[in-house]
Amino acid sequence: MKLIAFNLSKIHAEKKSAISSKNLEVNSNIDISSIESTEVDLLKTKEDFLEVSFNYILNYSEDYATLEFSGKMLLSVEHKRAKEILNDWKTKIVSEDLRLILLNIIIQKTSIKSLELEETLNIPLHLPLPRVTQKKEESI
Predict the structure, then answer these.
(1) Cα 37 to Cα 116: distance, rounded to the nearest angstrom
(2) What digits encode the pLDDT tens for the residues 104-136?
(3) CATH number, domain at 48?
(4) Please, where are the H alpha helices in the chain?
(5) Would 127 be classed as within a structural domain?
(6) Which domain holds residue 41?
(7) Which of 72, 78, 82, 126 is the most exposed place for a label (fewest CB within 10 A)?
(8) In a domain, 108, yes or no
(9) Contact at 8 Å (CB) between 108 and 93?
């Protein structure tokens, strides 16, 4: 399975109120809204193409802030696997291995934009950034 394209169609960021506590939590929800077979005329391969639509929401506790993303990704998938995925999707089932792949792609592709929006709105980051610390000297 290969990611061919990833496009966002909606980006919404809103800071709703002032922080009232230091125990702010961020909850995330990723919804796969559709998986469909599609044709791609520019790419001639033996694999099938699947278009996956999604919604990704980051909600801060206490109704403090919300970040929302909607979009589509295009995947190149082996024919047999594509048929399995589409058959499962008829009953809105996504296999665990596919679900993990899709969620990781969505998180990876939206994280940088999320951090940028959080910085712009001056809201706490939803994930920790690496920090450099001073090495403690060893005593003799």
Answers:
(1) 33
(2) 999 999 999 999 999 999 998 888 888 898 888
(3) 3.10.420
(4) 79-89, 96-121
(5) no
(6) 2-16+25-121
(7) 78
(8) yes
(9) no
Judged on CB neighbours under 10 Å (0-12, 13-18, 19+), 114 is buried
Q: Is residue 62 left, alpha or beta, with left meaning phi > 0 and alpha meaning psi from -120 to 50?
A: left
Using DSSP, how many helices (H) and how many strands (E) does the chain show?
Answer: 2, 4
pTM of the predicted model, to two decimals?
0.84
- pLDDT digit string, tens, across residues 9-43: 999 999 988 777 778 889 999 999 999 999 877 66
Query: Where on the phi/psi map is residue 9: left (φ > 0), alpha (ψ -120 to 50), or beta?
Result: alpha
Amino acid, res. 95 = S
Measured from the Cβ of residue 72, the count of other Cβ atoms closer than 10 Å reads 17
Q: Is residue 100 part of a domain?
A: yes
How far, in Å, are 54, 67, 80, 99, 115 from residue 38 at the CA level? 16, 29, 15, 19, 32
